[in-house]
Design a protein that fits this description.
single chain; about 450 residues; alpha/beta; five-stranded mixed sheet; 15 helices
Length: about 450
Amino acid sequence: MGRLFGTDGVRGLANGDLTADLALGLAQAAALVLTQGRHADELRAAGKRPRAVLARDPRVSGEFIGAAVAAGLASSGIDVLDAGVIPTPAAAFLVSDIRADFGVMISASHNAAPDNGIKFFSFGGVKLPDEVEDRIEAAMAGDKLAPTGGGVGRIRRFADAEDRYVLHLLGTLDTRLDGLHVVIDCAHGAAAGISPQVFADAGATVTVIGSDPDGLNINDGVGSTHLELLQRTVVETGADLGIAHDGDADRCLAVDARGQVVDGDKIMAVLAVAEHGRGLLVDDTLVVTVMSNLGLKRAMAERGIRIIETGVGDRYVLEALAEHGLSLGGEQSGHIIFSRHATTGDGILTGIQLAAEMARTGKSLAELASVMTVFPQVLINVRGVDRTGLAGHAGIAAAVAEVEAELGDTGRVLLRASGTEQMVRVMVEAATEETAQAMAERLAEVVREQLAA
């Protein structure tokens, strides 16, 4: 059996891979592992129980999975504060805000409605390192906490969860959004009850789409993975910009007034340059992943901004931000992290900060995003191959070196094994789309031949 935890918690088909039994056992194991710190010890010494924040996105399976998680936690002596349907970054913020011992978010992010997932935040609202996830997985096979009588946990509604989060987001702004017309795509997800309110409270005129979650329509033709409706709506309404969230609102992509997509790389470029100019970018450094476009790196170098590169996954960006004490980082997919305001990627926070830069400068989003020129990037997923054979394969390494030599400083190559499937991702950037496509197809064919399953 492979590792239970993936790059962002435990994820699978709800009631298929991800059952109520699994959710309950996982919660019991997490209760054991995540209450071994000083804070939990102090609570127990004072005769109090540890606390956990529980939240979910609106997909229908979150109801039974959340109930199973709550039961597992309460049966382990954990008091559960059920925040209901709120974004993932809201759950992380609340863990920190009320000094809960940990938090649990039930969500499959941008996945379709049949999937779901369980992710954990430790004390302070931060994602778990691999080592702690491994301890939780190991604990599932051992004895659990089993208090009786008054030792069992209580499950209560976290009544002011949304209000706390909204006030926090508004408190990060030093510029109002008056005069801006924003279209917000909530992906029929967790942002629906919060993002439009925050933008409106900050002064923007708001048009909302994808804001009617029914438990089954999350990410269905809307949100950050389906930008076409947002693009049309921005143009048709004459809006200044569009903001697209995913199902759990931890990411943000944007659309300018012409309907052109502004991805996570361009958003980071805009925000990094803005913060650099205002003296807020710690050590003049931006943290990105290996998937970020070469154009972002060149734009930052031209402006004296250093880049630190990590593996793919916002958790690795977070780790680098914490290790170096930095303030801004993110992913091309739209997970942007402002470490002075948040402990994880926050799509609503990113959206209001991007809009605030427009309001502050009086520039359009297209003008701001022109700070970066995107290099054409082609990604081919080579499926049905032995992904474990990629590392150290001499033949593939030689083919990559040959392509890199041909590209010189006008492009880049990245091959990466999938973390969950028998698949290798081949990514090539080049000065032209045609060159990138040809080089990517050439390397993909080498991978197919050399790693045939």
